[in-house]
Task: inverse folding
């Protein structure tokens, strides 16, 4: 293998050279230059250093307040998500709770909807004209209809939306605990509470740290939840960046805020990878036994835990149930919140699926997401293969550069693209991209690169290397081996990654809000517009239908990618889902360096 | 010291142990031996209090502990993979039980250091993380953690099974030494007959949830009570009725020709034994010979029986495959079992078959 490590052997292959040239151009044009350009626009607006943007920022009360709010939200979210997340993981995986399967399904509802869709859903239900609020106001006449807004509402919604990380990673870490350690502790006289506090939670600590940092970053970069539910008094950095971007005179302010957000993100990620290097507890056992559920011995505690568990279940499932129900309701029912069987029809679905105005955003989103997902996976198939094969400084430089979208918040990336391509630029053949439909596609592809790359690399690595060697010994050339041996083995994984990418882009809001063409608006933007009441009751009804359709699509994809492979585990397992896709193998979010953006942050869409 | 009486363990529809009686003497090293899935670990876990039996009683030191939780039974346990807490240092691992009991910190520290010294863990090692220790050191931590609470009984659940062969031999000795030093009643679970024979005072051989035989290692080896024990322990060849009849004819012994008969590999030989007064020689052909350095393994055929035997490689000439030879057998070494029940037949007892 020593030959593979030499840069010279890489350059000798024409295949590598072609891929390398295209990759270099892409990285330079869309990953490096836009972000460098932001720094230039902020600090060197006229070619020489200027602190004017900073001065403007510090003198803007609104901007400073937004900065403060973002950090407040980030800290508060880290606490609340951990409280709720650890609780639901313990209730579903650690303690013996009646109906824990049903509870799990309820808590897992955040897997199938998030981001702007979830924020919109909560607003339609608890907001000032919301279904539940309308009912409540009728029961309690003096009640403030705007009760569900501001810091509290944003924190609540984001808390319940982002426990997905706990369900994935903390639950997985918990399953990894060797049950014999718990039995040993019990044999030594420890109580249920002592075992939880002294044995179980300490072993989860590294994962909890990682998840906390992800929650912090989610809070810091929040966009849709504060926009939809924050009201006038609670605005945060990213919505502020968006506001400043839209007026050319304050673009430098937007850029500076984006840079601050980016720096904070990078610092937190650095802390996370540092913590992980030092803090992971490697199990010392070679054979471990499976975790068994624990009884809560104290009857009072048992009842209390059951009560809280079902209360949370209601909180998680109520929006989903109501959205599904009201997606069939007519305008009157949606407005008054009162629902009877006579109000339920298929009219909303018929309208959305047959009328041009209803169907268009859906089709726009589907086309954008499908294109971006296919381009990202198709292009990176070659790149991932080469990065997995060659291990030298050139390869690792490329790999690091491809992780830029993971390190930087999407607001910064989007702003960078706007600033860099709003005038003819030689990097893209002198074209202007801002305002075209292409720029959003580029952003979509870019955002998906780190996740796609990690997953594809993992699935290439999972292919038994002797297959390749066997083919080579029989005289097969590199490309032939790739086409006939590797590709068929990696293809199922590539399909799964494409599906996951497609899913997460379908309801994208954070990128689209900066870059979408005014006449080609994807779903996320239309849903957001509907929360402002632009389209009236019909808009709300449409949003419910969109939400249900998105949940169905996401649910089916999740089932196809994760559900079936889990069931097949007993049998001989071809690399159907790539190693990294199996949550059980993915381990800690950042453990394999940057990359699991979407695996770790399906919920980070709530920004 | 320990009495399991009429123990029955079921998991749903599956009966793991239908009926179990065991009696372990104070200070004894008692081994539960059997193939995987035979119920030996289930029996140990019932004793430890991790499994609640469907029926029967568990007594420790005369006291009924059947309904007591694990930590009230005064049993210490070393788990298959040691179950050391990875988030704690060695010292914290050993002190865990003491801290749960709310011992004074000074007392805990003294007890931990005292037990550590006895299992030969240095102060430096006490400060380490468990992941930094070797397999042998981890085992000593696990033993120390169990013994620091001064249990009446030490339970060991296949503690050597996930180690490589060399370390297993070394730690086997270490465990045995620790046990004799502390003089503590020990129940040991293993599927390795070699381990069981070398370490135990007495062995209970398990099969399908039933104890086939309890005895000293020599008893179960030389006088295997059932056909299962005979086959599970040691290595033996099955004999044909023809062969047994021929032995009877030559020696005048009254062996049953209808019983299932076996002969241990080391009990047959190609040379007349020096003191083998009762040995008889039967003509045989060498089927195969495998060279092992220290000895060769032979398969010779005589009267339809393939008899396996060992020949020490002492430099003398030995027959090659295909040649004719004589196999010497002492009638008293032939083990016989009832073909229906599998129970051992006493010598000279012809079996009355239906």
Result:
């Amino acid at each position: 293998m020593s030959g593979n490590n030499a840069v010279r052997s890489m350059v000798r292959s024409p295949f590598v050279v072609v891929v390398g040239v295209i990759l270099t151009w892409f990285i330079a044009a869309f990953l490096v230059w836009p972000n460098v350009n932001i720094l230039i626009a902020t600090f060197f607006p006229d070619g020489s250093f200027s602190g004017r943007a900073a001065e403007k920022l510090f003198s803007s009360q609104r901007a400073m307040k937004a900065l403060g709010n973002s950090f407040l939200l980030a800290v508060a979210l880290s606490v609340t998500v951990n409280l709720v997340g650890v609780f639901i993981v313990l209730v579903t995986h650690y303690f013996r709770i009646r109906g824990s399967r049903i509870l799990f399904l309820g808590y897992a509802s955040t897997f199938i909807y998030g981001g702007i869709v979830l924020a919109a859903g909560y607003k339609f239900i608890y907001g000032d004209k919301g279904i539940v609020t309308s009912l409540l106001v009728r029961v309690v006449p003096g009640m403030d209809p705007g009760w569900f807004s501001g810091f509290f509402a944003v924190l609540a919604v984001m808390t319940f939306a982002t426990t997905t990380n706990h369900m994935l990673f903390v639950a997985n870490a918990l399953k990894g605990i060797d049950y014999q350690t718990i039995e040993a502790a019990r044999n030594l006289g420890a109580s249920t509470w002592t075992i939880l506090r002294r044995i179980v939670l300490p072993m989860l600590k590294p994962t909890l740290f990682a998840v906390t940092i992800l929650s912090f970053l989610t809070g810091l970069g929040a966009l849709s939840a504060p926009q939809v539910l924050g009201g006038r008094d609670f605005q945060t950095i990213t919505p502020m960046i968006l506001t400043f971007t839209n007026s050319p005179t304050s673009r430098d302010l937007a850029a500076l805020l984006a840079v601050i957000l980016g720096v904070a993100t990078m610092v937190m990620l650095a802390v996370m990878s540092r913590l992980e290097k030092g803090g992971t507890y490697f199990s010392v056992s070679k054979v471990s036994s499976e975790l068994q559920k624990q009884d809560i011995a104290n009857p009072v505690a048992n009842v209390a835990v059951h009560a809280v568990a079902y209360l949370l279940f209601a909180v998680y499932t109520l929006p989903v149930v109501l959205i599904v129900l009201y997606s069939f309701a007519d305008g009157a029912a949606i407005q008054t919140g009162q629902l009877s069987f006579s109000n339920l029809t298929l009219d909303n679905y018929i309208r959305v699926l047959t009328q041009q105005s209803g169907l268009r955003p859906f089709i726009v989103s589907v086309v954008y997401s499908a294109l971006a997902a296919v381009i990202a996976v198709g292009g990176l198939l070659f790149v991932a293969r080469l990065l997995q094969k060659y291990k030298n400084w050139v390869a690792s430089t490329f790999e690091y550069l491809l992780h830029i979208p993971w390190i930087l918040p999407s607001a910064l990336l989007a702003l960078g693209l706007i600033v860099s391509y709003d005038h003819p630029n030689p990097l893209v053949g002198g074209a202007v991209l801002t305002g075209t439909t292409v720029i959003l596609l580029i952003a979509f592809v870019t955002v998906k690169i780190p996740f796609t790359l990690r997953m594809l690399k993992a699935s290439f690595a999972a292919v038994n290397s002797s297959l390749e060697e066997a083919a080579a010994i029989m005289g097969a050339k590199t490309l032939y081996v790739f086409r006939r041996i590797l590709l068929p083995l990696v293809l199922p994984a590539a399909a799964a990654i494409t599906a996951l990418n497609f899913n997460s882009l379908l309801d994208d809001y954070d990128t689209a809000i900066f870059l979408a063409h005014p006449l080609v608006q994807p779903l996320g933007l239309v849903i957001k517009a509907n929360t402002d009441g632009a389209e009236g009751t019909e808009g709300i009804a449409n949003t419910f239908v969109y939400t249900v359709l998105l949940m169905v699509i996401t649910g089916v994809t999740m089932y196809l990618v994760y559900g079936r492979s889990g069931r097949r585990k007993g049998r001989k397992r071809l690399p159907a889902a790539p190693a990294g896709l199996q949550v059980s193998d993915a381990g800690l979010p950042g453990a394999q360096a940057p990359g699991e953006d979407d695996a770790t942050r399906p919920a980070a869409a709530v920004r | 010291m320990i009495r399991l009486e009429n123990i029955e363990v079921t998991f749903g529809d599956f009966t793991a142990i239908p009926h179990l009686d065991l009696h372990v003497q104070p200070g004894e090293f008692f081994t539960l031996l059997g193939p995987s899935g035979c119920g030996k670990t289930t029996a140990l876990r019932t004793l430890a209090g991790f499994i609640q039996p469907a029926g029967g009683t568990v007594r420790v030191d005369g006291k009924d502990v059947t309904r007591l939780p694990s930590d009230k039974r005064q049993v210490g346990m070393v788990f298959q993979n040691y179950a050391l807490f990875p988030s704690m240092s060695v010292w914290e691992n050993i002190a865990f039980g003491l801290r749960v009991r709310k011992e004074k910190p000074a007392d805990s520290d003294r007890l931990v250091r005292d037990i550590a010294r006895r299992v030969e863990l240095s102060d430096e090692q006490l400060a380490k993380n468990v992941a930094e220790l070797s397999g042998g050191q981890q085992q000593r931590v696990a033993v120390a953690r169990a013994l620091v609470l001064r249990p009446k009984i030490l339970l060991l659940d296949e503690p050597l099974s996930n180690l490589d062969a060399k370390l297993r031999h070394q730690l086997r000795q270490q465990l045995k030494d620790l046990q004799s030093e502390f003089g503590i009643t020990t129940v040991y679970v293993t599927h390795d007959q070699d381990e069981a024979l070398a370490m135990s005072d007495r062995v209970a051989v398990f099969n399908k949830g039933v104890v086939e035989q309890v005895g000293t290692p020599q008893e179960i080896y030389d006088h295997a009570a059932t056909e299962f024990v005979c086959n599970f322990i040691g290595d033996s060849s099955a004999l044909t009725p023809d062969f047994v009849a021929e032995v009877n004819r030559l020696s005048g012994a009254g062996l049953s020709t209808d019983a299932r008969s076996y002969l241990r590999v080391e009990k047959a030989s190609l040379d007349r034994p020096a003191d083998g007064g009762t040995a008889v020689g039967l003509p045989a052909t060498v089927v195969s010979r495998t060279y092992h350095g220290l000895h060769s393994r032979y398969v010779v055929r005589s009267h339809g029986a393939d008899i396996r035997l060992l020949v020490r490689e002492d430099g003398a000439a030995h027959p090659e495959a295909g040649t004719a030879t004589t196999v010497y057998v002492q009638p008293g070494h032939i083990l016989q079992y009832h073909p229906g029940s599998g129970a051992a037949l006493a010598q000279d007892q012809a079996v009355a078959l239906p």
